[in-house]
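Protocol step 4 of 6: structure prediction from sequence.
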Amino acid sequence: MATSTDPKSASLTIDADIAQSLARVRIPPCPAIVTEILCEIQKDDPQIKVLNRIIASDVGISAMAVKLANSAIFGNAAKVTSVQQAVNRLGTANILNVVVDAALRKSSDGLPSQLMEKFWSRASSLALAAGLLARRHVGIAPDAAYTYALFHDAAIPVMMQNFPDYAPLYAASEGDGAQLIAQERAHFHCDHAVAGWLLARNWGLPEPIALAIRYHHDPEAYILPESTLPSNSLALIAVTIIAEHVVGEFIGDADLIDNRAFEDARLFLGSSDADLDEFQEIIAAALA
């Protein structure tokens, strides 16, 4: 059963009205398998054989592990065919990505299937793209970029589960994040960015990822002080915005990316037109 989360206990200061509304939002508890994986990978000497056993215990997660291990994010490495091979290639951070991905999808069971299929398909494409682009930027960990891109809108299904009239509002936004945030605040007095931050904290994700989720729709993100939004969190936001633009170009909805956010991300990362053309080719090859 989902549990309520008291936002007042969190370390981040948020608007009182938003805090009051969030107190009524039921955040899904961290699944046991995510807790088990986190417990192992946070040890000084995590055991691959233990991680292999946990992954192999779930058929769906096993399939996702093999799929990610064979994805373009690992280049042209030889194809893996077993869970053990996949776990060895993925490493601890990407193993967590696989388990979180599966748990997130399961947490949205019961919601409109067509809407969720499209939502998670786009999230997976964006996570792959962000991970690939992070490899082109020094100082941005591909596994962190993958996790953030996958998780940054994960509270949208949570909002949908909490508010019966949320689904049509989300569908009407047509992927426009800024419009969706404005509508969420107007109708529900909270938004999926803050709810996503609470979800990330509850599930034990690293603080830089949680903070990036909190501020990913903030128009002032690039001028916030380091103490509020660290540069490593801002880098995750920026590389994912660029990835979202490139994925949008590939599938034909790049116009949904806020132009200011896109230009701010380009400036932060130093991405030229030539870089964007190169990114386009990389992502197109990966998604084809």
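Step 5 (inspection) to follow. Residues 223 and 229 are 9 Å apart (CA to CA).
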